Amino acid sequence: MSLWLSAIGVSRGVAIGAVHRIYGADLDIPEYAIDAGQVEQEIERFDTAIDDARRQLQTIGAQIPRNAPSEIAAFIQTHLLMMEDVTLTEAVASRIRVSQCNAEWALKQQSESLVDVFDQMDDNYLRTRRDDVIHVTARIQRVLLKQERALDTGDTPDGPPPVIVADELTPADIILLHQQGVAAFVTEHGGPLSHSAILARSLRIPAVVGMHEARRLLVDGETVIVDGEAGHVLAGPDDGALEFYQHRQKRDERYQRMLSVLRDEPAVSGDGQRITMLANVELPEDAVDAQDVGVEGIGLYRTEFLYMNREDSPSEEEQLAAYRQVLASVDGPVTIRTLDLGADKTVGRPAKMATNPALGLRAIRLCLKEPAMFRIQLRALLRASGEGKLRIMLPMISTIQEMRQARHLIAEAKIELDKEGLAYDPAIAIGAMIEVPAAALAAPTLAKYCDFFSLGTNDLIQYTLAIDRIDDEINYLYDPLHPAVLQLIRMTIDAGRAAGISVSMCGEMASDNRYTPLLLGLGLTEFSMHPASLLEVKRAVMSANIAHLSQRTAALLALTDANAYREGLEALTRELRH
Ligand code: PEP
Ligand code: MG
User: Fold this and answer.
1) Among residues 209, 233, 257, which one ends one of the domains?
2) Out of 79, 186, 545, 564, which residue is the most buried by the measure of CB atoms under 10 Å away?
3) Whose CA is nearest to atom 1 of ligand 1?
4) Which region among 44-48, 50-54, 451-455, 566-570 has the lowest average model confidence (pLDDT)?
5) Is residue 385 part of a domain?
6) Is residue 109 a part of any domain in this protein?
7) Quick one: 403 and 300 in the same domain?
8) Taking the model in full, what pTM does it have?
9) Residue pair 525/273 in contact by the 8 Å Cβ criterion
10) Which residues constitute the domain of residue 464?
11) How many domains does the chain have?
């Protein structure tokens, strides 16, 4: 009999394989006392396990695919650093010594006490660190228990590819499993904006998250079909279902082959409107991948990654070199976002703990509070602008005052450069990310202070719907199609058009081709996304009739009946056919 399960699809595609359940953070940990004479030997066993775990991670780090988002390398780096941290290494050794217990038990106790400390801190970023402690501990435990092969699917090359079913997976696990040719991932926890989900998407591995109880309901070795778009898992499918999904797989393969021919085609809609296709990058090297899929420029360069995983801030010269590298790697204009730290992205500054970090001293607010640090970035950006088409983008703008203050600091930096005889683009464009509802609502006024807008839908959705984007308990509420979100997007696009400034979208919504007809209908003309999604979205653009979509979208947004609205939206997202 077939079993049909549903959760959140985070990486599209269909996979058919055999269930392979993995137990990670929930390993069975033995607890026993040791003799005083065995203590040093036990500590040595623990030290060796740390060394082995570190080597495993280094190997994984060296095998990260070139098109993987750069956060993945940063993530592995964080885990490596954690394995060197005395609160993990020396503290466990001392527990073994004092309590005369086995290494696994000592590590378990230390990990639990670290997790307790993080749990008491009401901070999203530290919550992520808490998960890191759990993941790092699980890796060392697996080595101690000689269960590293838990992550080895052990399947023969001729058998059906494994579908991994786990509580949750780290990006490092995903890379390791990808190398073993897994067909799909199903996890009991996690959300669409987690690093693991982002990685699964860029590796094009179907994935479904948040399927609670998956390991209880599914049995090792049984055949399952995973639909990473709908978020479905079908266990024990009958012949009809197998045939249906095999057909869909073949169709997807043909589609991918067909997409590659679009690389050098301009993104022109069926009714002749030119749409601009841009890339999001996190590190200068990512710009090379972007060029590989024929982007027309960079719509978002997240500079905060320059500041992460280090003790000090990057100097003006170091930033200048990074900005130059991006400018040199792509042909079109490059939009560089100023530092967006805070909330879940911090550099370990000893700031006091905010009660609601996502609503606190983040992004432009932090930069305006620390003008000395901001000035270094602005000088580097201005100097790079003398050598290519560069635009400065300010994150999390919520007031006109912030635009004014930022513009004032930029003007001051220009005066300094003039005095020093250093070149820059005097007409450099300065724009705002629209990611706070207040900015979208005030867009007509804000436009007077901006040369362009860019819709950051990841945060716009978070702030509009009051849902923490990294909290997996409520990510089922994360809905790009909520009427409030669509109204704010429309208002921003309309305000930009009325003011004669460009409006792009660089949030994840722009990279999902199910939304392309709707966004085109709303009047969006610039899309910026991870390079892996670009050709697919370009294809959706090329098959669209924008005049027709505009009429349908306007009629849709005027609907007040919830059912009619949902049906209309579904019809619009179905507009795209392979
Ligand atoms: C966004 O909020 O949509 C965005 C692109 O910025 P980030 O995801 O870096 O917050
Ligand atoms: Mg944002």
Assistant:
1) 257
2) 186
3) 456
4) 566-570
5) yes
6) yes
7) yes
8) 0.69
9) yes
10) 266-544
11) 3
- The pLDDT of residue 465 is 95
CB 301 within 8 A of CB 332: no
Alpha-carbon distances, residue 191 vs 186, 197, 209, 474, 486 (angstroms):
12, 7, 6, 9, 22
The DSSP symbol for 354 reads P
Assigned token pair, 55: 């080597």
Regarding whether 424 and 520 lie in a shared domain, the answer is: yes
* Sheet strands side by side (includes 8-11): 3-6, 232-235, 223-227, 14-22, 162-166, 184-187, 207-209, 8-11
458 pocket-lining for ligand 1 (C-beta < 6 Å): yes
Q: Which residue has the higher pLDDT, 427 or 157?
A: 427
Statement: residue 123 has pLDDT above 60: no
pLDDT in tens, 376-414: 999 999 999 999 999 999 999 999 999 999 999 999 999
Residue 410 and residue 517 share a domain: yes
Domain boundary among 109, 126, 144: 144
Report yes or no on 554 lying in a domain.
no
Same domain, 109 and 19: no
Distance of CA 167 to the CA centre of its chain: 20
**Catalytic entry in 79, 195, 450, 530:** 195
Whether ligand 1 lies within 6 angstroms of the CB of 167 is answered as no
The C-alpha atoms of residue 40 and residue 46 are separated, in whole angstroms, by 10
Using the atom order of ligand 1, give the atom closest to the CA of residue 507.
3
Residues listed for the chain: 578
- Compute CA distances 291 → 278, 298, 385, whole Å: 10, 10, 20
Residue of 340, 366, 396, 504 best suited for mutating to test ligand 1, as the one with most atoms within 8 Å of CB: 340
Catalytic member of 101, 367, 450, 506: 506
Task: Give, rounded to a whole angstrom, the gap between the first and last alpha carbons of the chain.
Answer: 31
